[in-house]
Amino acid sequence: MSVVHLVLFSGLLSLVIAVSSSPGSRSILRDIGGGNADQKDKAVELNTTNFDSVLRDTPAKYAVVEFFAHWCPACRNYKPHYEKVARLFNGPDAIHPGMVLMTRVDCAMKTNTKLCDKFSISHYPMLFWGPPSKFVSGSWEPKKEKSEILVIDDGRTADRLLDWINKQIGSSYRLDDKKFENEHVLSNITNYEQISQAVYDIEEATAEAFDIILSHKAIKSSETSASFVRFIQLLAAHHLSRRCRKGAAEILVNYDDICPSGKCSYEESGGKDTLGNFPICGKDVPRGYYMFCRGSKNDTRGFSCGLWVLFHSLSVKIEDGESHFAFTTICDFVNNFFMCDECRLHFNDMCLSVKTPFKKARDFVLWVWSTHNKVNERLMKDEASLSTGDPKFPKIIWPPKELCPSCYLSSDQKKIEWDHDHVYKFLKNYYGPKLVSVYKEKSVIGSKEETNIATEDLTVATNALVVPIGAALAIAIASCAFGALACYWRTQQKNRKPRRSWN
Ligand SMILES: Cc1cc2nc3c(=O)[nH]c(=O)nc-3n(C[C@H](O)[C@H](O)[C@H](O)COP(=O)(O)OP(=O)(O)OC[C@H]3O[C@@H](n4cnc5c(N)ncnc54)[C@H](O)[C@@H]3O)c2cc1C
After folding, report:
1. Domain contains 90
2. What is residue 275's three-state secondary structure?
3. % of residues, the chain, pLDDT over 70
4. Coiled coil where (predicted)?
């Protein structure tokens, strides 16, 4: 066994995964508009049980909560108006995702009585507006001054409701807006605030990558199986989202049952151990919410951008001893599972050009960065000649000077001379603390409970339990073809399975 493997294994042995005490509630967000998109309501139905968790978990900046009663004829007549606006903001087909979460609470349901009382509901429908976090454990009273929760006093038709929202956020949304024709795409002169919006994109890209593997039944051989397992190991140890780390660890623990001898069963099915039953970041990651990676056109950016950001965010967490493992794992992952032939082949060439194993994490971070820049450089030319790029996000050599002046030794645009020490420092900060900064800030202004959940979600938790990481170890060994030993470790791991205490 090589030194690298030894270090990796010892790193994995010390891997800790936190035990969640929060039920979470992203499935509701994810489910918006699912099924028959034409028939399903877009507004999210909330009740006493899920009200706080949905509003805490939404990536949207604002929320509208409609309190209504299902027996109220005016509410029934109002519903199509409300739904017209919700169509713009909610669900995978949202025209302006990530801005406003549109919800409703049925006060005629006995179980919701206390919730409706907290908001002093005096008539139906009654609509409120505010940052989602302000609704969590929140209340509203008519005479309370300076509340961040506002009553929407002019939302009687879809047009008027949208006008009211436009005035609040300075937007110019229209009911007939089409997907991606909006003014809320970011500029590609990325700044620190923008990267913090990538937190959700990384989760979404991870979930999308996993879905692609499922839908293509892409684990086809012992080689692809080992490649998949190594990537999952990397995520279990270093993904910035705790729920993705947890989901990855779950897959590792159950891998023998899901993929006996590397032959996986994929379908989502009740009770059976299949890969589809182990969503990598849990069931609740909202989809269609790319924000940092959102293109100005329907067919640009999104997943591939999210994948790059995932790779960079992983790279800055790697320790020296894992750097070559991380390198080969990402190379193999792209080669086996990134279903874009051109991308795969070019990337593989760049992987093959590395002749000496990485020993330092710094070298690996800089390799991912410079490889990405090589792709940018090539695409700059292609996109200019074919007009296939996103007009609002032309490819650039990155980071631009505006973002990191000290990364540049010379100002000659034709041949940039980099100060690699500064580039490394910049990348560590940008894809590390800066990436999670707003998430944490959001939690700081929220409730204490919210603070705990949010910060734990993105950092190694303090009340962590040692995960039965023998599974990771066993599969790592298996993937190194240590047959009998792997078998032993797997057996050990199976025996330890009941100790898992998340769920
Ligand atoms: C492994 C891989 C290989 C690919 N190969 C190809 C290919 O051969 N042909 C093709 O057409 N498309 C390829 N793509 C897709 C392409 O690179 C872009 O992802 C896609 O065009 C979307 O571009 P974007 O504007 O969202 O920015 P992306 O290039 O996706 O970058 C996402 C974000 O990362 C940041 N960033 C940019 N450059 C760097 C850097 N050097 N270091 C750190 N951060 C950076 C920026 O903030 C940028 O907005 C590949 C994608 C991946 C993940």
Report:
1. yes
2. helix
3. 74
4. none
The atom number, within ligand 1, closest to the CA of 395 reads 25
Q: What count of other Cβ atoms lies within 10 Å of the Cβ of residue 484?
A: 8
Which CATH number goes with the domain that contains 94? 3.40.30.10
Task: Give the separation between CA 102 and CA 248, rounded to whole angstroms.
Answer: 31
User: How many angstroms separate the alpha carbon of residue 340 from the centre of ligand 1?
Assistant: 13
In which element (H, E) is residue 400 found? Answer: none
Write the CA distances from 65 to 47, 62, 131, 304, integer angstroms.
11, 10, 11, 34
| Surface-to-core class of residue 223, CB atoms within 10 Å of its CB (0-12 exposed, 13-18 middle, 19+ buried) | middle
334 CB near ligand 1 (under 6 Å)? yes
To test the ligand 1 pocket, which listed residue (375, 376, 416) has its Cβ within 8 A of the most ligand atoms? 375
- Is the Cβ atom of 293 under 6 angstroms away from ligand 1? yes
Does some domain include residue 267? no
Total Cβ atoms within 10 A of residue 411: 9
Quote the domain boundaries for residue 109. 32-169
The residue ranking higher by pLDDT, 23 or 46, is 46
pTM of the model: 0.65
Confidence of residue 461 (pLDDT cuts 50, 70, 90): very low
- Domain-embedded: residue 136: yes
pLDDT tens digit string along 334-367? 999 998 888 999 999 999 999 999 999 999 999 9
Helix ranges (H only) for 272-340 are 303-315, 323-337
pLDDT computed for residue 488 by the predictor: 38
Q: Which atom of ligand 1 is nearest to the CA of 334?
A: 1
Please count the structural domains in the chain: 1
* Ligand 1 proximity of 307 Cβ (cutoff 6 Å): yes
Question: Could you tell me the distance, in angstroms and rounded to a whole number, from the CA of residue 132 to the centre of ligand 1?
Answer: 32
Q: Whose CA is nearest to atom 33 of ligand 1?
A: 305
Atom of ligand 1 minimally distant from the CA of 188? 49
Are 68 and 124 spatial neighbours (Cβ–Cβ below 8 Å)?
Answer: yes
